[in-house]
Fold:
Amino acid sequence: MPKNAIEARSMMWNLWHGCRKLSAGCQHCYVYRGDAKRNIDSTIVAKTKKFDLPVQTKKRNGEYKVASGTLLYTCFTSDFFVEDADQWRAEAWEMMRIRNDLNFLMITKRIDRLQQTMPDDWGAGYDNVTICCTVENQSCADYRLPIFKAAPIKHKIIICEPLLERIDLQLHDIGTWVEQVVAGGESGKEARSCNYDWILEIRDLCVKNNVSFWFKQTGSKFIKNGRLFNIARHLQHSQARKAGINFERIVR
Structure:
């Protein structure tokens, strides 16, 4: 995975679309919001026209359309491990294996399905695949993170977004196995509030354990110093950046 995914050449690879809500963080899912505007049933999981994007070639010279070194944000309008996509996942893994010159990053709430769905040659994980596990509250963290920690994955990131309550990550010894923690509030008109104190606690733990930290967005309802702020959607990422609390781990 690139040292800083934000700076890498990147593309979206939504190889299938649609998902089924699983936990509290799914309640106001952005995919469902977008689909509702287009009268699309978000619970129907279907392959997209970009399913084979990594191995598509140019007609004139036969080179791959996706340039070597590109970071592909994988399955961001679904969950890569959703049960409805079991029939296509082997082919997806094969494309990642063939394009080992690309980097693939996916986010999942279904880390408990990795063991039963990974390819035969997975071993300790593919070098070019980063898996991010979402934990939106303490109960999700306490269930998913022990599974995530034990899973054979080369690059692991914890996503605390939407952060719905204070989460104590200290219980999970993140300094020994996590590359980065991302935290942020929930967007949308029905968003639940996110407290800056929760963000700072996670950030301080990351600094203490030399784990990279990224404050991704404030969310729509942001509490700071006991005051609730309603943040416009187009300002949520920039306001998070202005906080100046991102941390890049020190490589020793």
Observations:
- DSSP finds six helices and twelve strands in the chain.
- The chain has one domain: 5-242.
